[in-house]
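mind reviewing both lines:
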Amino acid sequence: MPLIAKTKDELNNILKPAVEVKDGKVDITDENKLRESVIDDLIYTAVFSENEEVKEEAKKLIRNIANEFGAIAASINDLYRAMGKGETRDFTTPAVNIRGMTYDVARQMFKVALKHDVGAFIFEIAKSEIGYTFQRPSEYASCVLAAAIKEGYKGPVFIQGDHFQFNAKKYTENPQAELKAIQDLTKEAIAAGFYNIDIDPSTLVDYSKPTLKEQQYHNYINTAKMTDFIRKIEPEGITVSVGAEIGHIGGKNSTVEEFEAFMEGYLEELPEGEEYISKISVQTGTEHGGIPLPSGEVAEVKLDFNVLRDIGKVAREKYDLGGTVQHGASTLPDELFDKFPENNCCEIHLATGFQNIMYDLIPEDFRNKIYSWIKENLKNEWKEGWTEAQFIYKTRKKGFGPFKYEWWTLDKEYKDRILEALYNKFEFLFEKLAVFNTKEYTDKYIKLVKYPYGYLKNN
């Protein structure tokens, strides 16, 4: 079991075998010991120490050690621009939301990347997940960078804020306050090393308006405001990859005309010459987490690949965007995944399928403990007409935060079984999405710029 430092002295003792710190600068004195045990102790301290100052110091150290080691937080923007210009072959970047056991799960992604020369892969967490998994951006980024060090991965590490979403009700009541809330979260995320941010005011699209541009108005104007905000705080030499969304996931399917109306309004609002979005999320018929049947199994989804293909074609040819982005995809049938690279889809977001593997393989008594907690504490989320199986399926994502320590410290037998299953799933998906051997592209297009933990321009 890794050590968890309670004091700064204990933290310094953890470092001693592998890292020296002088005047705030870190020097890795023994890479083997760093990867063998020191990084484990550092990340467990960053996540679980009861001393907030020690936690912060551990996060700062992890970022500085990662910079020295060569695992650098980076933006995927320039690679997507190259895709938009037709300078790469077709592939679809997997963006994975890790809700629990983040350090160990991230390690499996890095293992696959190292084995198959994968450069294009993203670690992400949504605004809602930050809340219910109890992972602020600084903790999530620390887990990912620590995992890179543990596995010996050197190169760009793409960490992304997913669905930084506007709440329609709050926006109606006070637009400025809701915009400020998204800005504050974005600032926190960029300071933590999230150099990829998906802004999502698609919840504000109003289909009652007569024209497409009017329907998209609050979406494009807030996407433009957020893009400008990001450009003012992003570190020098880094162009944060900004994603936009035209169709709320779970709603009606997106069209080329909607995309064109959005882009017209968005570009009019953006200051002249400012770097704009790198990709566009669309609705193709999926729903986050899939649609559970009364039995708890997931219903089959009719996904319209033409939406991805047609909007992606215009996005690339007219605007040099990487292409379209698919959400809510991890519960789709396996045989569909190789179709995404063929249909101008530059990125796919995957979450619930990995969560399902984790819940299937934990000890029964632990699973029952979480389910009992959910039934007791989340009963107000039980919708009329749902069976218990449907209720549990839709809410068990909220069992990661309150039981975080138990997830991280599962018995080795169960943990190994989960991680092996996840590794196999990542390997399968990465191959289907054609990201094997994409390291040549990240080597060519991604410039590595090192910044310390907490850094923002103009701060």
Q: What stands out?
A: Residues 8-69 form one domain. The CA atoms of residues 210 and 355 lie 41 Å apart. The chain has three domains: 8-69, 75-358+413-445, 363-405. The first helix runs from residue 8 to 15.
